[in-house]
Every structure is written in C-alpha cells, then in structure tokens.
Amino acid sequence: MKTKVLYSATEFVLYKLKKFLEQMKKGDLMLARFRKMSENLNRPTELTQSTGSIEFGAKICLVAPHVPATDPPVEDRKGVMLGGRISSNDIKYSQELEDGCSVVGIPHLEPAERSTFVITSADYCDRNGEQLKYNQEFLLALSSSVARQKPLYLRYDPNPIPGLCGQYPLYLSKHPVSNTRWRILPKQQANITRFEQEGQSVQETPNNIWQIYVPIAK
C-alpha cells in the first residue's frame, strides 16, 4: 500500500526555500555557476614582455584586427581576440574550460585566462627559452590549463566537404595531434623570398599581441 505525502502551501514554500538555500550554499544555482565561470575565464593575465624575438614558453594572445566586433558592424568597432567559450550546457558540469570547448572571437581585447596561450614544443622536447623559427612547428596551449598540468591545445579541424559554411572549426583539445600543430610563415618581400627566411628567428610583435588575418569571402 502506497502512502501519499501531502504538503500544505506553507510547508511547500518552506521546502522550496530550504532546497534553494542548499543549492546556493553548494554553488549549484545557474547564476552562481555563471558567476564562477565568468570569474575563471575573465581573470586578467600578464603576457610575456617583449625581448625582440619569440621564444618557446612565451604567453601570447591572438587578435584579428579587421573583424567587426559588433553585430551589425560598426565602423569604429573592429578587432576580436581568440578565446575559449563554455556553452550553456557545459556550464552545468564545469566552470573551467575543458576538452572540446569551442574557441570564438571575443570583442574584449584585454588579455584574460580564456584568451592567453603558451607557445610549447611540438616534438616533445623541452624548448622553453629557445627562439621560435619561421616554419618551425609549435603548439598553442591555453595558459590556465598548463598551470593545472592538463594542457588544452588550440585545434583546427577543417570541414572535409568544401563549400559548406558553419562555425569556424577551432576548439580546445587535450590531444596534441597533427591538427594542433602550427607554423609561422615569414612575410613575402620584394627582395627576399619566404624560402630564404626559413630558419630565422620569428620577430616579436608589440606587447605579444599576435595579429592573424582570415580572408573574408565577398
């Protein structure tokens, strides 16, 4: 025989209030999770100071200066910074960037935990302090993940079907596979070819804010 438990209106309100206070204390409320996520992702960071050339172990940010920062575009508002994003579904389980989190363009151009990357070796050797060369492979690991000793690498998986448009296939991955390896090509000049510049040290950009240019289809 089943017994039904009946609550009066007052008892039900007290029960809901008790559950709410318990969730608030544990940080299980969505608002608390969102605040924790924002605190983790937007914590300010310091990039590696300029020394003239790029070295392994340097902390950098990646900025696309020509991309509109607003929708619809505003003439004087351009420039987005690449950074990790936690979806509304993932925030229920973690308030830190994890394996599989997407990478998006952020209109806030101040270096933060979500947008700071460390240049690391792609050949499993400790190259911290060594100068990065043109056309040399390297990995970009999220700075905060390196501090946790669980590195997340910037990964690019292009769409295998040409012509399809969708979200830019950049995300964070814990697997240092071929699609997480990057290279810097020297700028083509009138008096010297890119081939002739291979092996030379990569020159540092002001304040270690790297500019990237993605062609925009017309």
From TrEMBL:
GO cellular component entries: motile cilium
Name of the protein described by the UniProt record: Uncharacterized protein
GO BP field: cilium assembly
